[in-house]
Amino acid sequence: MSTAKGNPPSPDPAAVEEMARDATAWCAMHGLVVGDRAEQRSGTVPGVGLVHAPISLLPARLPESFWSQACELAPIFNELVDRVSLDGDFLQDSLSKTRQVDDFTSRLLEIHRKMMDINKEENIRLGLHRSDYMLDSETNSLLQIEMNTISVSFPGLCSLVTKLHRVLINQYGNLLCLDSKRIPENVASQQFAEALSRAWDEFNVDSAVVMMIVQPEERNMYDQYWIVKYLKESHGVTTIRKTLSEVEAESQVLPDGTLVVDGRTVAVVYFRAGYTPNDYPSEAEWSARLLMEQSSAVKCPSISYHLVGTKKIQQELAKPNVLERFLENKEEIAKLRQCFAGLWSLDDEEIVKSAIETPDLFVLKPQREGGGNNIYGLDVRETLIRLQKEGGDALSAYILMQRIFPKASLANLVRGGVSHEALTISELGIYGAYLRNKDKVVMNDQCGYLMRTKVSSSDEGGVAAGFAVLDSLYLT
Ligand code: ADP
Ligand code: MG
Ligand code: MG
Predict the structure, then answer these.
(1) What is the dihedral of CA 132, 6, 62, 133, to 10 degrees?
(2) Where is substrate bound in this sequence (predicted)?
(3) How close is the Cα of 461 to the center of ligand 3, in Å?
(4) In this structure, which residue's CA is closest to atom 2 in ligand 1?
(5) Separation of alpha carbons 121 and 192, rounded Å
(6) In sequence order, what DSSP letters do the residues of 306-360 get, joined into one string?
């Protein structure tokens, strides 16, 4: 029968079926689960209506050199985010045209401006990031898709997919001609919990808690609960979960800056919501965001870190001589630049013209997160022509990016207990944790990885958005 993602022979359909059963049973028994859309309460009541997470049956293959390259980039990107975050004028100026046409970015910038006006200093700075890459088949190079600085998902579940794939390969190894040791270790959830606990240590108030900001309905809550678990069990730190509207109703900032929510002092605010306009349905949520920013709690991310993760800033950083403003080490700068794909602002008339002529070579991106927002193919042409007609600054809401074409390979994707084989492409995410207290860098680490695999005909990539499945990687 067919091959599993490239090389070795994949087992016959009966064996695939058996493996898929073993895999989904393992998921249920080890917490590799998400809320089931079919059960109405699955996004609000833990332990109700669970289904195994969408997964790939076997890991995606990746040459070891690209893996090393991606890992090596993590601490450099962590440092870069921190440096850029300190340049408030750069953030404000780079996003000044975007704010005219994008209300969400404008609200974030308004909070950022207020913090600049009062000279707000964030001495303890915690970043939990994920830099995403695809392997471009034309150039055989690893290119960055984007840098995420807020609410990065799947540190909990990705560690489990790695474990699952090792178990399956150990069990069916002879059949598959695979060696489980070729799957790199992945303990992202423990490392994120450690970073949060060390930020809590730096804050240095024994009775304080970590506050996780969550959406009112969250089917990916078990991914979050893995971090809650490690914070408590490995570090003795308590986590409370609050929505932005609960924060607005239950919190105050004391004169010394202490953030108190529902009677508890908050050491670290860990955002797993707040990255999309949908999370701010009323003024209450914006006022909660501002209040937290004004407090002395460690924000993960701070408003500055959040803005550094916008697609507009990614594009500005890719311009000539901009990285040099923030980093000194020439080798590190070269390493970053090597993974930058083509990125353009829509001020550039030439590139807009090219994108209208050959839209398949570009992706048009607004300033949004969470998947499902980008524009591809003929829609790029249509949208650009429409925006040009609208005139004014309408184009400034977007950036253009070179489209990356990864090589497709066959894989078995398992969803809702059903396995099907498809031509797929994969996206590698490398987690990073950065913690700093004034001049002391407490942590600057690569923290495991997320592999996401999707059918090659799908443009978008989000797992939660329903496009991709969780995967791990197999070094070749
Ligand atoms: P988001 O912040 O919403 O995740 P991304 O920039 O990561 O936005 O884009 C979402 C998905 O679209 C990615 O996971 C990837 O699958 C696809 N994508 C984004 N940029 C490119 C690109 N330049 N080439 C090919 N696919 C892309
Ligand atoms: Mg993304
Ligand atoms: Mg993103």
Answers:
(1) -10
(2) 130, 150-153, 218-220, 224, 272-275, 463-464
(3) 10
(4) 369
(5) 24
(6) HHHTSHHHHHHHTSTTTHHHH---HHHHHHHHHTPPPEEETT-HHHHHHHHH-GG
C-alpha–C-alpha distance, residues 224 and 230, integer Å: 10
Q: Which of 137, 311, 363 to mutate to test the pocket of ligand 1 (most atoms within 8 A of CB)?
A: 363
Catalytic residue flag (residue 83): no
Distance 178 CA to ligand 1 centre (A): 30
Is residue 106 part of the annotated active site? The answer reads: no
Query: Measured between alpha carbons, how far apart are the two ends of the chain, in Å?
Result: 22
Among 146, 358, 426, say which to mutate for ligand 1: greatest number of ligand atoms within 8 Å of CB: 146
Angle of CA points 61, 59, 413, to nearest 5°: 115
Four-point Cα dihedral 296, 300, 302, 307, nearest 10:
180
Q: Does residue 285's CB lie within 6 angstroms of at least one atom of ligand 1?
A: no
Q: What is the mean pLDDT of each run of 10 residues along the chain (476 residues)?
A: 50 90 98 97 97 97 98 98 98 96 97 98 98 96 98 98 97 86 97 98 98 98 98 98 98 98 98 98 98 98 98 98 98 98 94 97 94 94 94 89 96 95 96 98 98 90 79 97
Domains (ranges, CATH) in the chain? Answer: 187-300 (3.40.50.1760), 342-403 (3.30.1490.50)
